Amino acid sequence: MARRGRCSSRGYVTAGRGPTRLLADIGGTNVRFAVQQGGGPPTRVRNLRVADFTSLERAIATYLDRVAIPSQPVLGAFAVAAPIEGDRVRLTNGPWRFSISALRRRFALTRLDIINDFTAIALGVPAVGRDGRRKVGGGRALANEAIGVVGPGTGLGVSGLVPCGGRYVPLASEGGKVTLAPFDRLEAMIVEYVWRRRQHVSAERLLSGPGLSLLYEAVAAVEGERVRPLAASTITSRAVAGTCARCRSTVNTFCAMLGTVAADLALTLGARGGLYIAGGIVPKLGPLFARSPFRGRFQSKGRFSDYLSAIPTYVITHRNPGLIGLAGLPAGG
Question: Exposed site from 145, 222, 278, 304, fewest CB < 10 Å?
Fold first, then answer.
């Protein structure tokens, strides 16, 4: 049985006795597995690379072979970096595709819940705690208000939590595909450069791992130069180390653009409960992100600058917020 998510009062369920549940947070680059016993926290967490396996089925079988678990899983809860629209699922930015019903039969699961990966991260936000996040800038979160979540990684994930009678409803969103709006002349030139090569310049087109590489090329082109392509990891490591001025400039532009998208999400949701940044890129920037133009851009909305200044922004530093969110899905239907 597949579903997209349900109200959760805290994004986490009470521990107790019960069957073993297999958890999987499936992204375009990595898949993180864990098991959950009786509604408790995720345990036996393992990270595998998507590129090392021809299918999700092989990755699951490898995990189950390598890890000693208390008992054979009879339940499953998976988060997938893709829209969930029926039985067939295909990763948006990865090679895997699978049938939910076939996967359930293959591993003898009596129940298999599938939700979007950023829906799972949103569910995990209330449970990551102060130790699992880093605040950037000012503002104060208000209780019982909407929460926004955005995160650049292999793609750009977007979700949120909306208050629902003292509980939260998680959103299943493809907000990373919205059209990217330039903020100033430089960004307009960058978007125009990409637009000449792509039919649609989405936020994800530049605010992602592949997007960071494209942005590096675009920034150089706007400055009248051509550069060799660089991987996103190289760009960020050089920017953090301060060994490449163009890499630093590219990362600052990336952070500023992310500030625009995050602010738009905060305004759309009325996210006075806070705006959280997840994904594989921003947490690795460390103090550089706090010094970047992100927060200044987030607050720069004309008449609504004061409104946004009051909203706190956080970087999720917890290693597995998606697994925490999956563990919070009710297992009994």
Answer: 304
